[in-house]
Each structure stands twice: as structure tokens, then as C-alpha cells.
Write a structure and sequence with these properties.
By secondary structure, the protein is mainly β. It is built from four helices and twelve strands; from the N terminus they run ααββββββααββββββ. The protein has a single domain, classed as Lipoprotein localisation LolA/LolB/LppX (outer membrane lipoprotein receptor (LolB), chain A, Clam). Helices cover 14% and strands 40% of the residues. The chain starts with a helix and ends with a strand.
Length: 243
């Protein structure tokens, strides 16, 4: 009975965030990634950096973004997320913090409407919720995460390898890039908003299922000091369900 209950709770967690790749099988909020962004998921992302790079005139927009993000070693930011789930015909709002450290991992820590997290420690993705008696651990090939922005900084720094630029438009001082993935998967298209410094301020991901994930970032700090311990998951007394 207990095993059935755990299985039922686990399916509920994954169903809520399975939109984007979006993260969850566990799929997260990001749908393309088999986990959360969903994350959770995820999942996305806008990193405002203060790095200034000399750029030639009329440079490719994707090259501009790559050049900036390739210099980012660490990121911490707040985010607001809107996830539209087609099958439920409902929009869900989330908020939280994002942390990234090159060669260590990334963390999507949700604070609203309740606490949950999606942590990649370099070997596996951990998913946990405050009111659940179990956590999910999924060992994953990092290549399977490519292109869903769950690993935000890494995907943006390789954006030209993962996406084809279909066109650009202007919204005031913001440039909007319309993208399609080069490989077939759960993601149908993406849009990336960049400011005058070619920094990402918002990302929209649309899955083949119709699920839409939009993430906007604020209070971004780049290349600051982030403790390695932040990317080590400690399950405590919770049961670990491995996939």
C-alpha cells in the first residue's frame, strides 16, 4: 500500500511539471528534458551580465549571445515563470532562484507557490518537494539535457549548435530571436529576448504538445562567489527513488 502511495505521489509531481521537457519521465517544467522545468524544469533563461565584449558591426545575433555567455562562470538570479499546460487548459505561476557554477552544476530552487528544487550535481538530477517524503534521483547523460535551457548557461553558450535562427523582431529596445531546434524532440520552438548588450532577459519555450514555458529573470549576479556545497544534494531522512 505504501509503495502504491509513493508511486501515486511521484506521478502527481511529474505530471504537474511535465510540460516542457520541462522538465520531468520525470519531466520538469522544461519539457524537453526528461525531468523537471519541471522541472520542473524548467526550465530557460536570462542572465544579465556586466561583461562587455568588443563586437563587430552586423554580427550574427547568436554569435553575440554566445560570446557573452561563454565568459560566464557563475550565475545567481531570481526568476518568474509562467507555465501553460495544454491538457489542463491552465496556466501556473512559479517563482524562485536560479544558481549556476561552471563544472559544478545548476539549481532551480522554487519558493512559490511552494518549495521544490531541481538540482544537477554533474552526475544526476535531483527533484524534491517540501511536503513529499521522497526525492527523485535520475542519472542522466548530459547530452540529453541539451536544448531545453534547463542547463541555462551551457545551452546559451552553445545556442548556434542547438538551434537555427528563423528570424528577429524588435520590441522597443529589445531584440526577439525566433528559434527552432536542430534536432527533433519535445521542443517545437523557442524565442529569446535580448537587450542592447545582447544579454538574455526572457525565454519562451513551446513544446510539440502545446505546453508553453516562459521565464523572466531579475536581480542577476554573474561571476560572483558561489559555494560548491550548494550543488550537493542531501536527502536526509527522505526516501530516494532512483531512475
Amino acid at each position: 500500500m505504501q509503495e502504491y502511495q509513493l508511486r501515486h505521489e511521484r506521478k502527481s509531481v511529474l505530471r504537474l511539471f511535465a510540460a516542457f521537457r520541462s522538465p520531468l519521465t520525470a519531466r520538469g517544467l522544461f519539457g524537453s528534458y526528461h525531468l523537471p522545468f519541471a522541472i520542473m524544469g524548467l526550465v530557460v533563461f536570462t542572465v544579465l551580465s556586466t561583461i562587455c565584449v568588443t563586437r563587430p558591426a552586423f554580427a550574427d545575433p547568436l554569435d553575440e549571445i554566445k560570446q557573452t555567455y561563454s565568459q560566464i562562470k557563475a550565475v545567481e538570479a531570481r526568476f518568474q515563470q509562467k507555465l501553460y499546460i495544454m491538457t489542463m487548459k491552465k496556466e501556473r505561476d512559479f517563482a524562485g532562484e536560479f544558481f549556476y557554477k561552471r563544472s559544478k552544476g545548476f539549481l532551480w530552487r522554487y519558493t512559490s507557490p511552494k518549495q521544490r528544487l531541481f538540482l544537477y550535481d554533474g552526475k544526476a538530477i535531483w527533484q524534491a518537494e517540501e511536503d513529499k517524503e521522497f526525492v527523485i534521483k535520475e542519472k542522466i547523460n548530459k547530452q540529453k539535457m541539451e536544448g531545453n535551457f534547463l542547463d541555462l548557461v551551457e545551452d546559451i553558450s552553445r545556442i548556434d549548435q542547438l538551434f537555427t535562427l528563423k528570424g528577429t523582431t524588435k520590441e522597443g529596445d529589445t531584440q526577439v530571436l525566433s528559434l527552432v531546434p536542430k534536432k527533433e524532440g519535445t521542443l517545437r520552438s523557442a524565442r529569446v529576448w535580448t537587450d542592447k548588450a545582447h544579454l538574455v532577459t526572457k525565454i519562451e519555450l513551446v513544446e510539440v504538445t502545446g505546453n508553453t514555458n516562459v521565464i523572466t529573470f531579475s536581480s542577476v549576479k554573474t561571476n560572483g562567489s558561489i559555494e560548491d556545497s550548494l550543488f550537493v544534494f542531501r536527502p536526509g531522512k527522505k526516501e530516494v527513488l532512483e531512475q
